[in-house]
Amino acid sequence: MSEKTIFKRIIDQEIPADVVYEDDLCMAFKDIVPKAPVHVLIIPKKEIATVDDLADDDAALIGHMWIVIRNLARELGLEEGYRVIVNCKEGGGQEVPHLHYHLLGGRKMSWPPG
Q1: Looking at residue 80, what DSSP letter applies?
Q2: Residues 41, 102: contact at Cβ < 8 Å?
Q3: Sign (positive/negative) of CA torsion 66, 23, 48, 61?
Q4: Most distant CA atoms of the chain, gap in Å
Q5: Which CATH number do you get for residue 94?
Q6: Is there a domain that residue 1 lies in?
Q7: 34 lies in some domain
Q8: How far is 114 from 98, CA to CA, in rounded Å?
Q9: Which of 17, 67, 88, 111 could hold 92 in an S-S bridge, CB 3.0 to 4.6 Å?
Q10: 55 lies in which domain range?
Q11: Higher pLDDT, 111 or 88
């Protein structure tokens, strides 16, 4: 990646974010344009552009991120349910070329999503 993405700039603390979780592997922060009462983005600190760019040795990182998502859902009071979304590439709706999960909740989710 030649130019830093907005997510890399957040990781590097070059721009602010409303961080709700951070560890050595990933971080989570509130989406600036929320689509639900709770809308948190969970990103790996490792720069991975899309799901298609995952390496086999990223399995532990991705598993860790799912545990973080589960824990955040509990901490954010999403006992009634929530949705986790990952978009892949521009055609799949991905706007930032840095792997990220959307954790949405706090309202009833409809189907299909879009």
Answers
A1: T
A2: yes
A3: negative
A4: 42
A5: 3.30.428.10
A6: no
A7: yes
A8: 21
A9: 88
A10: 6-105
A11: 88
- Domain presence at residue 111: no
Identified catalytic residue from 39, 64, 98, 100:
100
pLDDT tens digits for range 71-93? 999 999 999 999 999 999 999 99
The whole-model pTM stands at 0.94
**Rounded distance between C-alpha atoms, residue 9 and residue 15, angstroms:** 6
| SS3 assignment, position 82 | strand
Domain membership of residue 48 (yes or no) is yes
Q: Is 100 a catalytic residue?
A: yes
pLDDT digits (tens, 9 = 90+) for 29-65: 999 999 999 999 999 999 999 999 999 999 999 999 9
- What pLDDT is recorded for position 1? 46
- Residue 104, helix vs strand vs coil: strand
CB atoms within 10 A of CB 10: 19
* H-run or E-run covering 26: strand 26-30
How is residue 66 written in tokens? 């799912």
Q: What are phi and psi of 76, to 5 degrees?
A: -90, 5
* One-letter amino acid of 64: H
